[in-house]
Amino acid sequence: MRLFTEIIPPAYFLPGFCLTVAVLVLLSCVQNAIHNLPYYRIPAVGMSRWSLFDRQANVRFMASARALIREGFEQGHTMFQAMFPHGPMLVLHPKYVDEVRRHPSLSLEEAVKESLPVGDYPGFEAFRGTENHHILLDVINQKITRNLKQYTISLARETELTLDEHFGQPQEWKSYCFASEVPYIVARLSTLVFLGEQVCRDTEWLDISVNYTLDIFGAITALRRWPPILRPVVHWFLEPAQKLRKRVQVARRIVQREMRRRQHEHKPRQPDALDWLHEVAGGRHLDVTTAQIGLTLVTIHTTSNLLTNVIYDLAANPQYLPPLREEIQSVLETDGTFHKTSLTKMKLLDSVVKESQRLNPPGLTSLHRYAMEEITLSDATVIPKGASLVVSAHTMQDESIYLNAHTYDGYRFYRKRQEPGHENKHQLVMTSAEHYGFGHGVRACPGRFFATNEIKILLAHIILKYDIRFPDGQSRPVNWEIGQDLVCDQTVQVLFRAR
Ligand code: HEM
Predict the structure, then answer these.
(1) What separation in Å is there between the alpha carbon of 142 and the centre of ligand 1?
(2) Which of 2, 30, 190, 471 is the one with CA 20 to 30 A from 304?
(3) Calpha distance 210→212 (Å, rounded)
């Protein structure tokens, strides 16, 4: 310390400190600006070539992504750049979807890492592409998907209980905000398979399952407002990040309590993701709580969003309810109860969901990737090394592929499946270059088999138990468009009446 004061006299401490902070912040701003510089020679829409002076580009994209993406293609480009929330992103025409899905140098993990300012900050663990993620993928692919058969009956039982709690048996039309009820229903059913029967009824866990995802996106938005260099300090003080850390603490307590409980339980029970995580990890380092939160992050709101869209489409098109009931009842009469194979036989139900997803995919774009090296596509289009890209999803409403592409047709995929040779191609779980609501290719959503099962079980119960409609004067609400994300209207009321 004495040596220090000999070199720098005390009078210079404060100005010196302030100067150092100012230089660091300036450097960070320059680093940020360089990161936000547009890609050289690639056409830009909604942003100037000099993004340093175009502070509105991001605001413009968040408010009107659909119009900007349309503008890019109408100008005749097959690849252009737009200012996404984390910086410039290349938007590719759907004709490249097969090349993108196959290319070994286009990475999903790197794309996620590059776009999210989550560092090593506590609370954000679920987004970190660590060993946990690979264990999680193996658990989903090798365990959850393969054990759907065992879980179908218990999921159907839990569905009855939870629907009764949420909607009861109203004898007159009763109004519900379906979009805010459904995440808790989905959380309860998903947790049955992820953490077992005890935890799936624990309201504290359900609260985490539903709200961790909302909080993490809130915290990311708050972090993005700060220069990168300050984020490692600032995150400790940001309220959404504090909330996130508390949620992880509570989650850890609940998961550990469940693990302890199991050590003393001697009754046989169905294995679930908590068992499978340990089994699949096989000695590799594993943070079980982070893995469980990771599961909820990818499951609850994606599934709830699709379910809500289906309910909105059915409430707006009630003519589908009688044939759906007929299909579900006839399958149940033959099978006696809900088996995995019973759900496969419900082809109209499958078609109705796939059609809702076609018109209301999770986003205007899909297949978010990062170029690990410079890539030349088959038509000589060059993707620079280090670029982030997405593929536009507008092909799902393309008139040249889908007749009356903008009109809801619940029978669309049912009819396609009647064509010889197409019996399976148009199932909800199948992805294609024409329908990539679950992504496409090797990185397509591994949870789609589980999500489809859960969605069909829930819908079959709702359709058999209730009449549904919109209040008079309410039509099918349009989605909220937040940048490239499509979120179903979270406020609309749906009327339910017990049958
Ligand atoms: C309707 C519900 C769901 C939708 C619409 C959906 C959609 C998607 C999409 C679009 C992707 C990106 C694919 C790509 O970039 O090619 C994805 C990835 C992923 N999904 Fe889903 N998902 C759903 C449910 C689930 C569920 C229930 C799980 C877990 C059980 C899950 C686990 C994952 C995982 C782990 C990834 C990353 C895959 C990887 O790293 O290779 N998803 N999902």
Answers:
(1) 15
(2) 471
(3) 6
Q: How far is the CA of 1 from the centre of ligand 1 (A)?
A: 55
Q: Which amino acid is at 153?
A: I
Written as one letter, the residue type at 267 is K
Rounded-to-integer distance, Cα 461 and Cα 457, Å: 6
DSSP characters for 165-195? HHH---SS-EEE-HHHHHHHHHHHHHHHHHH
Q: Which tokens sit at 44?
A: 């830009």
Cβ 363 vs Cβ 391: under 8 Å = no
Q: Which of 56, 211, 35, 42 is nearest to 115 (CA)?
A: 35
Amino acid 160 reads: E
Tokens of 309: 């869209």
CA–CA gap between residue 97 and residue 99 (Å, rounded): 6
- Over residues 51-74, mean pLDDT: 86
Going from the Cα of 176 to the center of ligand 1, the distance in angstroms, rounded, reads 28
Q: Is 445 assigned to a binding site?
A: yes
Q: Could you tell me the two tokens for 164?
A: 């009764």
Closest CA to 247 of 413, 255, 19, 113: 255
CA angle (36 as vertex; 302, 57 as ends), nearest 5: 70
Q: At residue 150, does pLDDT exceed 80?
A: yes
In the predicted structure, residue 470 carries a pLDDT above the cut 80 = yes
Please name the residues in contact with 109: beta carbons below 8 A apart, sequence gap of 6 or more. 129, 133
Looking at the DSSP bridge assignments, the partners of residue 467 are: 497
DSSP string, 277-304: HHHHHTTS---HHHHHHHHHHHHHHHHH
Nearest to 193 by CA among 271, 305, 280: 271
Q: What is the per-residue pLDDT across 157-194, written as a single tens digit (0 to 9) for each? A: 999 999 999 999 999 999 999 999 999 999 999 999 99
Ligand 1 midpoint to CA 447 (Å): 6
From 298, 308, 428, 479, give the residue whose CB has the most ligand 1 atoms within 8 Å, as the site to mutate. Answer: 298
Instruction: Report yes or no: 156 and 457 within 8 Å, Cβ to Cβ.
Output: yes
Strand, helix or coil for residue 83: strand
Selection from 189, 200, 176 nearest residue 303 by Cα: 189
CA separation for the pair 67, 187 (Å, rounded): 34
Nearest CA, atom 41, ligand 1: 443
Residue 27 sits at the vertex; the CA angle it makes with 26 and 32, to the nearest 5 degrees, is 95
Q: What is the pLDDT of residues 290-326, one digit of tens each?
A: 999 999 999 999 999 999 999 999 999 999 999 999 9
CA distances 12 to 4, 8, 17, 107, 162, Å, are: 12, 7, 8, 49, 66
